[in-house]
Amino acid sequence: MTDVLHLSGIRKSYGDLNALDGIDLTIPGNAYVSLLGPSGSGKTTLLRVIAGFEDPDQGTVLLDGRSIDDTPAHRRGIGFVFQNFALFPHLSVAGNIAYGLANRETGALKDKTAIQRKVAGMIELVGLTGLEGRGVAQISGGQRQRVALARTLVTEPHLVLLDEPLGALDANLRARMRTELRQIRERLGVTFLHVTGSESEALAMGDTVLVLDRGRIAQSADADTIYNRPAHPSVARFLNCYNLFEGSIAGDAFVGPAGTFSIAGSERLPGGRQAYAVRHDRIEVRPLPAAVTSDEERVEGAFVASEYSGAAVNSFFVLDNGQVVEVETHLSHRPPADYAPQERYGLVWKRDVALLYA
């Protein structure tokens, strides 16, 4: 598969802040790539550098194998879908979609019939048939999102950058638009680079998931690898599905404020700093008198509260050192337990499900 985008040594600073700290990145053609990271990690800055809205302090951007470092944004052949959609309020749905075709600097279409044909095809593709003449204030948020996407796609860009494109939508619509975005991308065969702060959105949508942390790519892998084997404690923390225990390795044990855990059988990852991680759904809650087997580890904690999320219940326990441990119970596995407030319980996991960062 031909690479559509290659970044080499991209750096961007704002005063003392290193927003991008030496980004090396290659994105293939005909792919859906999710870019995940916490607020302030440099996600939007990276998109703006690729699009040409910002100039990097150092580094090179190649699109389809050619440098675009000196190419202005409007000549790069890159589409950009903004979080707030940035539609023209005085134009209809069709007028917004047609705008780029009729007004772009190079290759603008003057034939109204050709414009109408392209706009009609794009309207059908994104599911807006029947809404062509409506103003953008007269349609729903999901429909406005489709207009913004159609306006970008109709110009046939080499690459489409999406900056938190679902952030302005309600939860039900976000879930539906995830599927629709993937289907639209697959029909066109264009590469999408989708920036999001939502770990569930990134994992659900990306063929490849990039995790950005403090201006650097902390991990690049498929969703299954990111979820099950986060490459660094910061990635595990940001996924919001791991309990991280601080401490250090001493012989055949991991020793920290939460206790001492045998590391025999735990998977070791070169995470850059020492930490011990257990996923929320890998922990079982037991009464204190219940025994543990030779292949299990246990900490004790007092129950604080539970949160019901539909398919699962997340329960929170505070350890003696003050750390809060989260336990996720999927309701398809067993009915929700009724824990007594401030009652102490054993939190138990199999040693071989733990990740050891060394």
Task: Please tell me about this protein's structure.
With 358 residues, the protein is an alpha+beta fold. The chain folds into two domains: 3-228, Rossmann fold, CATH 3.40.50.300; 242-357, OB fold (Dihydrolipoamide Acetyltransferase, E2P), CATH 2.40.50. Helices cover 24% and strands 36% of the residues. The chain is built from eight helices and 22 strands. The chain has helices at residues 43-51, 93-103, 112-125, 141-153, 171-188, 199-205, 223-228, 233-239; strands at 3-14, 17-28, 32-36, 58-63, 66-67, 78-81, 159-163, 191-196, 208-213, 216-221, 242-246, 248-250, 253-256, 259-262, 267-269, 275-279, 284-287, 296-308, 312-319, 324-330, 344-350, 355-357. A six-stranded mixed sheet has the order 6-7-8-3-9-10, with helices on both faces. A five-stranded antiparallel sheet has the order 17-21-18-19-20, with no helix packed on it. A hairpin with a 2-residue loop joins strand 12 and strand 13 (253-256). Helix 2 (93-103) crosses helix 3 (112-125) and helix 3 packs across helix 4. The chain is elongated.
